[in-house]
Design a protein that fits this description.
By secondary structure, this protein is an all-alpha fold. Helices cover about 75% and strands about 0% of the residues. It is built from ten helices and no strands.
């Protein structure tokens, strides 16, 4: 008798996604990013996301079973991307250069990823119901670690005394503002691109703050 080597259906490997399936998933996430960043989680609907993706609602539900699933997928990718600029600070580098580089990277993210910034801001404003655990287990330990690095630089006399955590908060506030309040910024400035002026201003501001 031949041995039955067939795997149980639940344990069988899933077939790889086709190019079309990958493209549709990407289209759904791209549309979800547009809708969630504009309307927030509560204001977003599956119908609106499907329309933005150029799909029917049943077709969208084949790939993502709910609005929550799309939102969660976007937030998982976002948090890693959002932490990268802080992770890139080198404890062995020149402290002033490292911190000014962090400011520049955060401002570049506000310029290049405004929808992602607004998605993150909307989640935080709502009390972070979908990513509180990620903030606690991912963001907080990273900020605590970088605060210790900054404290050591201060103790070594390499930068001026500052509260390291509030310094990081200030960087977030003064860079993400340009994405989260884009309409206000561009209304005040008219047709002027805000980012060259913002980069020069923040360079001066933080250099004066941090230089011993």
């Amino acid at each position: 008798m031949e041995e039955n080597t067939a795997q149980p259906q639940s344990l069988a490997p899933k077939p790889p996604r086709t190019r079309i399936q990958k493209a549709k998933r990407e289209a759904i996430l791209e549309a979800g990013l547009d809708v969630f960043s504009e309307a927030g989680f509560r204001g977003a609907t599956l119908d609106r996301i499907a329309a933005a993706a150029g799909l029917s609602k049943p077709n969208l539900l084949y790939y993502y079973p709910s609005k929550e699933a799309i939102h969660d997928a976007l937030l998982r990718d976002l948090l890693s991307t959002w932490l990268d600029p802080l992770t890139a600070i080198d404890p062995d580098g020149n402290p002033l250069d490292e911190l000014l580089g962090y400011v520049q990277r955060k401002l570049a993210m506000a310029r290049d990823f405004p929808r992602e910034s607004r998605l993150f801001a909307n989640e935080i404003i709502q009390g972070a119901p979908h990513m509180h655990a990620h903030l606690r287990d991912g963001l907080k330990p990273l900020v605590d670690r970088m605060a210790r690095v900054i404290d050591q630089w201060i103790a070594d006399g390499k930068i001026a005394p500052v509260d390291p955590v509030h310094l990081i908060f200030s960087v977030w506030a003064l860079t993400q503002h340009y994405a989260d309040f884009d309409v206000q910024v561009r209304t005040v400035l008219g047709d002027e691109d805000p980012f060259p002026g913002a980069e020069a201003h923040l360079e001066t501001l933080f250099r004066r703050l941090l230089t011993p």
